[in-house]
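User: My collaborator and I are trying to settle a disagreement about how two of our proteins should look. Neither of us wants to argue from intuition anymore, so we agreed to look at predicted structures for both before our next call. Could you fold the first one, then the second, and keep them clearly separated?

Assistant: That sounds like a sensible way to settle it. I'll keep them separate. The first protein:
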Amino acid sequence: MPTGRLPMRRLPMRRRSLLLAAAATTALPRAGAAHAAGRPRRPLVIGHRGAAGWRPEHTAASYTYAVQTGADWIEPDLVPTKDHVLVVRHENEISQTTDVAAHPEFADRRTTKTVDGRAVTGWFTEDFTLAELKTLRAVERLPRVRDRNTVFDGREEILTFQEVVDLARRLSKTYGRTVAVFPETKHPTYFRSLGLPLEPELARIVRRGRLGPRECVVQSFEPTSLRRIAEEGLGVPLWQALGTTGGPYDLVSAGDPTTYDDMMTPAGLARIARYADWIGPDKSSVLTVSADGTGVPTPLVADARAAGLRIGPYTFRAENQYLPAPLRRSATATDFGDAFAEYALHYALGVDAVVTDFPDLARIARDAG
């Protein structure tokens, strides 16, 4: 893997957030022939919780807009209800993503729990039945960053994983291409300890829908969860997500000192390749951006290739505060910066996918290349 700098390809981009938001509503051409979720012919665009940059995350509107504007896959994070139904929320604590705090009938369910070794206070999906969760409505998780999305607050209900699968099927028919679901098992060790394991129910829904490798890829930060999915014999690709600090909670809680850094070494990648098909590192683990705007790659892409793994970094966002400093366009954290340049750097490096809150921008950048 070369360690020199990649030249930055600067693509045209509007400087102001409002102009870019307007451009994002422009219709995009349909994708070509459908491709297998596990064997991309060109970099895949994965809608992170849908199109979370433009709509409240994990809602039907967010997933639909993601596919309309270019996403190949859509990502639902999975957590269980009290009656063991898988629903899609970023976390099991839902005060930031729903209007639960405005429901006096649920005020006494606010509590503090220890989730993956961390104390969390709020309302938790595992304390609600599905019927109760369906009385809540989704809200924008980052209202100070994405005030534009708050106009949609209160309009959408909480979706089940089955409903997302059904939606992906409908969108596939509408747009004439395969839209894969990309579920992540959230806190699987924690939920297993509560008697609410995620993997059997996930497997049941995949089997019920007869989802194959073109339609489903399962991801987790916990290797144990992926191994359990592998034991289900579903035949769908598996994706090992990788953090930037510490190690997977299932390993940490079992006394295994393996860190994410260890997992990204050639030896660690070889171990991942025994059970998974993909790795999903933070984008900062793939390359950094120097002061002059050029990319300085790490060995990770080449090492993943050598291990027989595909690679899809996360999470690409357009706001200045999420971009490398040289790509920011103003001193205002929530203004849009040169997101197109960041996509171009990663595409030039040869990644197989990008996980993004703005699938429209990722597709424009990809197609311009």
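The second protein, kept apart from the first:
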Amino acid sequence: MTARFTSKVALVTGGGSGIGQAVARAFAREGAAVVVAGRTPGSLDATVTLIEDEGGRASAVTADVTHSADLARMVDETTSRYGGLDIAVNSAGILAAVGPLGDVDEEQWHHLVAVNVTGTLLSMKHEIAHMRAHGGGVIVNIASNLGAHARLEGLGAYVATKAAVSALTRNAALDHIREGIRINSVSPGPMDTAMSLRPGENPADRAERMAAQLPIGRVGTLDEIAAAVLYLASPDAGFAVGTDLVFDGGAAA
């Protein structure tokens, strides 16, 4: 355990799996009290157990990022349990509406926008409301290299939502830095998560594909993306405002 975030309270949406879970565990290892939020209690409880087994402090809040009332309650429960909210990482996101834009399923499109765009906006809205009343804080949003930085055939709907996350992040950073709230985003490329697997593909197949596709020749590890998020949340990144850190092994270079 290190002490970089001792006495800090970190909230992570999408904390039940993937990048969100890795980020939550990393904050706890460095001394923060962590709240993980998401829609599935079982996966959130599993994250809490992993953190507690490593000697950290954590608890879970069940919340749907498409519901503003859930997010208000999420922030309230975080602050009531641990006395404040210093850092928020908005990691909740989905991949949906896959295929050519001319054939996009409209119901999937609306759900994709609700989670990835509206969910990020509403999460920030309630996090900012607490932070501006309590001396500031730090927010890191998880965008994607597919969006503001790169495009991929068949993923136009997803690309649009993640480009929106990048834009929301930058504008929110301008809106709130003078209130002591520092906001940035990370735009990961293919990471070691289920989302980077194509239908029917296993990790060995993916590794072969990435060796040919990515300049670095591999997917990113969860420890690597967690380290990037923690850097932006730390005082070491104190001059980073509205940064969108592309973290993709050279895919969008």
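Some points you might bring to the call about the second protein. The chain has a mean pLDDT of 97. DSSP finds seven helices and seven strands in the chain.
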